[in-house]
Amino acid sequence: MLDSQAVFCRLVSMIECFEDDESIMRPYCESAAAVINSRKRADADASDIRLVTAAAAIAYCRYLTAKSAADGDIGSIRAGDITISGSGVNAVNTAERMMNAAIEDAYPLLLDTQFAFGVV
């Protein structure tokens, strides 16, 4: 079973957050660990760095999304020659790309949850 403490430690090394941020980031790490645990193949090692990294990336993306929503990040507005841009949108987009790449790296260790008929 993937440990949320391992996820937090990986998150600290990935984004250079501080140990003081643990109380803020802990719920996101626990949630992300649960997501990966639910999708992890039975024969996959829960301590595999690809799984821990995927969970850390999910936690970070969810944190940034929630922070952006709470901050009321407007994205960008243009009025004539004036453009106001919010950096939260860019940060969330970057985190989503990082999360997708981390999950893709962990695919061999995850259950295939996508199902589609090619031809009937």
In total, the number of strands is 2
The sequence of SSEs as H and E is HHHEEH
Q: What is the radius of gyration computed over CA atoms, rounded to a whole number of angstroms?
A: 17 Å
Largest sheet: 2 strands, antiparallel
Oligomer: single chain
First-to-last CA distance = 38 Å
Entry summary:
The protein is built from four helices and two strands, in the order αααββα. It is mainly alpha-helical.
Structure notes:
With 120 residues, the protein is mainly alpha-helical. The protein contains four helices and two strands. The mean pLDDT is 84. The longest helix has 23 residues, at 49-71. It is globular and about 50 Å long. A two-stranded antiparallel ribbon has the order 1-2.
List the helices and strands and how they pair.
Layout: H1 4-15, H2 22-39, H3 49-71, E1 76-79, E2 82-85, H4 87-106
Antiparallel strand pairs: 1-2
Helix pairs in contact: 1-2, 1-3, 2-3, 3-4
List keywords for this structure.
120 residues, mainly alpha, 4 helices, 61% helix, 7% strand, globular
